[in-house]
């Protein structure tokens, strides 16, 4: 049996201050899976992403990433596991404005030996691996440009390349298209998923736009867990 990238079992998490409780009996993702996660505002999507990233720990049940139960790890072990295996893509990009496009994309390889080794195996150098991704995402002309001079759509492609570099097992994409205009949203998601598929990276795509669900193989509604 192949190892699941992500496995959540009998998860129960409650915020003491607000009393909001999230219960997830079972949720798992295999290598290369694409899941569209949807739910009303306040239904707990961000809370679930924080549990998957190990930023929050459940009161009971467990989250395993590549077979490792996050609740059994120290904070630094959890940080290493996260950067080794997860690429993050957020609504606000979180790019470093004083760095070039190329330097933003190669950043995860500075924090993760595993991502660096994977990048070296995919291309001769980490820079070449970043260039390959940026070319595939239509950003090959902007390698040495400062990210602060790019359009919103271009910055989101740089953020996508950064999430993809070094072949993480999972990309968590949290509302990655909300800053893009309608015409570019589907195109961006298709590009992201095509590159992820090429390297067998699973993608958990969180969005309020149900139109994007068609690009993912599976669809999960937060409400299905609360029923
Ligand atoms: N740090 C916190 N402390 C206490 N309660 C919180 C905290 N963060 C979120 N909540 C509550 O938990 C519930 C779920 O919030 P969460 O942000 O996970 O929902 P969401 O589905 O991501 O919402 P949105 O789509 O609006 O981003 C909400 O009722 C929220 O008020």
Automatic annotation (TrEMBL):
<dbReference type="InterPro" id="IPR003439">
    <property type="entry name" value="ABC_transporter-like_ATP-bd"/>
</dbReference>
<dbReference type="InterPro" id="IPR027417">
    <property type="entry name" value="P-loop_NTPase"/>
</dbReference>
<keyword id="KW-1003">Cell membrane</keyword>
<keyword id="KW-0472">Membrane</keyword>
<dbReference type="InterPro" id="IPR015854">
    <property type="entry name" value="ABC_transpr_LolD-like"/>
</dbReference>
<keyword id="KW-0997">Cell inner membrane</keyword>
<keyword id="KW-0813">Transport</keyword>
<dbReference type="InterPro" id="IPR025662">
    <property type="entry name" value="Sigma_54_int_dom_ATP-bd_1"/>
</dbReference>
<dbReference type="GO" id="GO:0005524">
    <property type="term" value="F:ATP binding"/>
</dbReference>
<dbReference type="Pfam" id="PF00005">
    <property type="entry name" value="ABC_tran"/>
</dbReference>
<dbReference type="InterPro" id="IPR017911">
    <property type="entry name" value="MacB-like_ATP-bd"/>
</dbReference>
<keyword id="KW-0067">ATP-binding</keyword>
<feature type="domain" description="ABC transporter">
    <location>
        <begin position="6"/>
        <end position="227"/>
    </location>
</feature>
<keyword id="KW-0547">Nucleotide-binding</keyword>
<dbReference type="InterPro" id="IPR003593">
    <property type="entry name" value="AAA+_ATPase"/>
</dbReference>
<protein>
    <submittedName>
        <fullName>ABC transporter ATP-binding protein</fullName>
    </submittedName>
</protein>
């Amino acid at each position: 049996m192949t190892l699941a990238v992500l496995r959540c079992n009998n998860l129960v998490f409650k915020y003491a201050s607000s009393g909001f409780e999230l219960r997830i009996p079972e949720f798992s993702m295999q290598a290369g899976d694409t899941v569209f996660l949807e739910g009303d505002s306040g239904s707990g999507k961000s809370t679930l992403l924080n549990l998957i990233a190990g930023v929050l720990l459940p009161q009971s049940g467990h989250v395993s990433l590549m077979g490792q139960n996050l609740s059994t790890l120290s904070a630094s072990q959890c940080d290493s596991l996260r950067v080794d295996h997860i690429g993050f893509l957020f609504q606000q990009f979180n790019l470093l404005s004083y760095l070039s496009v190329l330097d933003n994309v190669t950043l995860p390889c500075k924090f993760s030996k595993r991502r660096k080794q994977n990048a070296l195996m995919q291309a001769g150098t980490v820079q070449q691996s970043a260039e390959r991704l940026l070319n595939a995402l239509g950003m090959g002309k902007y390698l040495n440009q400062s990210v602060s001079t790019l359009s919103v759509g271009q910055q989101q492609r740089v953020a996508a390349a950064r999430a993809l570099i070094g072949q993480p097992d999972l990309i968590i994409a949290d509302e990655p298209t909300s800053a893009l205009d309608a015409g570019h949203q589907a195109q961006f998601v298709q590009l992201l998923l095509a590159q992820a598929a090429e390297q067998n990276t699973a993608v958990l795509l969180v969005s309020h736009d149900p139109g994007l669900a068609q690009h993912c193989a599976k669809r999960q509604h937060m409400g299905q867990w609360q029923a």
